[in-house]
Amino acid sequence: MNTNIFLQIYHDYSERIQSGEIAAGTKLPSENDLTREYGISRETVRKALQLLSENGFIHKIKGKGSFVLDIGRMNFPLSGLVSFKEMSERIGRKSQTIVYRTEHIPIPPTVARHLETDKHATVWQVIRARNIEGEKVILDKDYFRSDIVPLLTTEIASGSIYAYLEQELNLQISYAKKVISVEDATTEDYELLDLKEYTHVVVVRNYVHLEDTTLFQYTESRHRLDKFQFVDFARRSPGEEK
Length: 242
Fold this sequence. Notes:
Blueprint: H1 5-19, H2 31-38, H3 42-54, E1 58-61, E2 65-68, E3 74-77, H4 84-91, E4 95-106, H5 109-115, E5 122-132, E6 135-145, H6 154-158, H7 161-167, E7 173-184, H8 187-192, E8 200-210, E9 215-224, E10 228-231
Parallel strand pairs: 3-10
Antiparallel strand pairs: 1-2, 4-5, 5-6, 6-9, 7-8, 8-9
Helix pairs in contact: 1-3, 2-3
């Protein structure tokens, strides 16, 4: 038998997923079922499923099986600073911001470390869920130095905070450092997001600076695994060594 039979399974299922024949959220046949269907070893089936997973077609959940991902995922740029409102306008999908909290609080110790500021300072804390096409799939937890952003309201938070900062406060937002990781979902994630069967979230930590290099905002953005892919464009410079 062709030793690359796992590629046949991969192509069979990837084409059916891309054509829409197998819809997002569908559970694939079990490893045992695929073994019988193709008349191959379970190890070969696992190689095919792993390849489907690595290429973003399925998500494997231990003890439950393999589920088809939405291959029309929303792209989030790694470089550049894009607000959720700007991103949602680009992707053209129905979206809504749900504001859970907008309050002026003493800075939490962990946030003080992230913002590299005095532990006795105060910040504006904004916690929002992003509902896209009927599902809450992003949880944004923003902290703004209150000596730079003296006022935030729920009304501002439900729209675009960046539009307010730039147009009303005339702040020059310049650049951000981003740290991306996959982490266990927290109790708060389960309460405020529609996580379904997912046990992990993609966490993007943003450290946002003004034009004068002042670090004024720390954001923790928590994304459901199946809805986003983070993209960047890289160019090789002449003379670089591999």
